[in-house]
Amino acid sequence: MNIEKARFNMIEQQIRPWNVLDPSVLSLLSVVKREDFVPAAHKDLAFADIEIPIGAKGNASQTMLAPKIEARMLQELAIRNTDKVLEIGTGTGYMAALLAAKAEYVYSVEIDPGLAEIARNNLQQAGVANVSVEIGDGVQGRSSDAPYDVIVLSGSLPVLPERLLNQLKIGGRLAAVVGEAPVMQLQVITRTSEDAFSTNPIFETVVAPLTNAAQSNKFVF
User: Fold this and answer.
1) Mean pLDDT score, 148-154
2) Per-residue b/e over 54-69, b at no fewer than 16 CB within 10 Å?
3) Please, are residues 184 and 205 in contact by the beta-carbon 8 Å criterion?
């Protein structure tokens, strides 16, 4: 496989058509080597328009998001170099690497210890220093460094927990796929005041849920 040709095709044929036109995002997708974060068994699928299985110990429910969804999240969040980011669901570390290239610091939480170790190794090998990966259940957030400028969920939730939303700064943004199959939607939610949030629906999709997602406390806007 011609890696650079495959990367070019991913950007031009998958990502641009999904209205990802921000030059800084497109450039970043060329710089951060997605293939270095894909499990060895699936290297040939590194640039495919699919979710790639990454679950350790045979957990097939854990996946790497499709490139166009990662790219659109990154664009819609408009991350600044002063932003403090919380990522829920580190996976193999690819999205964390993208976030870290734009943010000041990324706190990433992964429930699977095996994946957390893989992500740490991948990030270290990629020279990414402004990410910390810790083991835990991030569905309810991470209060120790809250509030955050940006929160990103790398899997879907049927509903968003109030506790998670309350860990956003005023003006902070959260990107998540919300709903249950077959009806899910990528949403970007902005905290507009202490008690108010605005929701921007981006597109409909279906992605694998976060572990323990169904146990979230319901929050109704």
Assistant:
1) 97
2) bbbeeeeebbbbbbbb
3) yes
